[in-house]
Amino acid sequence: MTNEARTRPMKHAVPRNRRGAAGHPASAHRSRGPACQAIRRFARNRGALVSALFLGVFIALILVWPWVGCQAPDAISDLQFVAPGSGHWFGTDVHGRDLFTRVMYGARISLLVGAVGAAVSLVIGVIWGAAAGYLGGRVDGAMMRIVDVLYALPSIIFVIVLITTLNAAVDGWVSRGLSARGGAILKFAGLFGGLGAVSWLTMARIVRGEVLSLRTRPFVQASRALGAGHIRVVFHHILPNVVGIVIVYLALTVPAVVLYESFLSYLGLGIQPPQASLGSLIAEGAAQINPIRIYWWMIAFPAGTLMVVLLALNFVGDGLRDALDPRADP
């Protein structure tokens, strides 16, 4: 071997290309990130994936139905108690209204209440839990004792009393000159606030526990040593690390709020006529059960829709919990 051959550098045994070193695509490293791993784990969960697809199609249907539906939800006709068939897929009710159309509108309102109630729970719970966990000490003790006191109250009784009191006050304001539309908006706001007011307690406890663990981590201590203020530490270092668990519990809060709203509407304390939700439609169907004849479709279809939607929401929440678990296999 000549001196030139000995001094010439050896070529790499593994070919290189434009996609990355050693022939591996550069995207292979990026695909192993936490977000991609979470998406991959969620896609492997058949129940969660099918439920997410069903919810996507169902939400799209209830949003576009006002433009493609053949009948308004409050259109009264002389076709009372028509059994399900080709003309009316879910039959008609006591006023001859198409039940499928009313179920679509009712599901929209129920999901809207669930989403807004969960959003209220998210805002209150994250702020309360993050403040208690970050401040610690006596402030943490006082704030969490308030949570414990609220936990000791029967939540559904608290909501019933709150909404009943608010509805009575709004009815008085309407009698003194407030418009009916304004009164309806206030009742909607009271329903959203009441349901959110009893749903944030667990969120606050979860966030507080995570913040207590994160505030002593080295990266948080290093940020403080570099001069970062409290607001920057909380919003740039602590809260981004609790997003995963917040998303999971938020997904599980939506079906709980929908169930609360359906129960209140069934009792006549939630959505009021002429509006309808799945709970009020179930109540209307239950009112038509009598010893002479049972109009089964009036209660079967709204109750079945509520059951399927709640199951799908819970499956999606469980799938998100497994997908966002950092201890799970990639």
Quick structural gist:
The chain has 330 residues and is mainly α. The chain has 14 helices and no strands.
- Taken from the alpha-carbon principal axes, the silhouette is globular
**Total count of helical runs of at least 4 residues:** 14
- Give me the strand/helix succession: HHHHHHHHHHHHHH
Specify the structural class: mainly alpha
Into which percent range does the helicity of residues fall? 55-70%
Domain count, please report it.
2
Task: Give a quick account of the main beta sheet: strands, pairing sense, barrel closure.
Answer: none
Number of strands: 0
**Beta-strand content estimate:** under 5%
Q: Report the radius of gyration as a whole number of Å.
A: 27 Å
Low-confidence stretches: 9-24, 26-30
Mean pLDDT across the residues is 82
Distance between the termini: 50 Å
What this model shows, in words?
With 330 residues, the chain is an all-alpha fold. The protein folds into 2 domains: 35-65 and 276-330, no CATH class; 111-272, no CATH class. Helix content is 69%, strand content 0%. It contains 14 helices and no strands. The model is unreliable at 9-24 and 26-30 (pLDDT under 50).
What's the structural blueprint in terms of helices and strands?
Blueprint: H1 3-7, H2 26-30, H3 34-44, H4 46-68, H5 99-135, H6 137-152, H7 155-175, H8 180-197, H9 200-214, H10 218-225, H11 230-238, H12 243-266, H13 278-287, H14 297-323
Helix pairs in contact: 3-14, 4-5, 4-14, 5-6, 5-8, 5-9, 5-12, 5-13, 5-14, 7-8, 10-11, 12-13, 12-14, 13-14
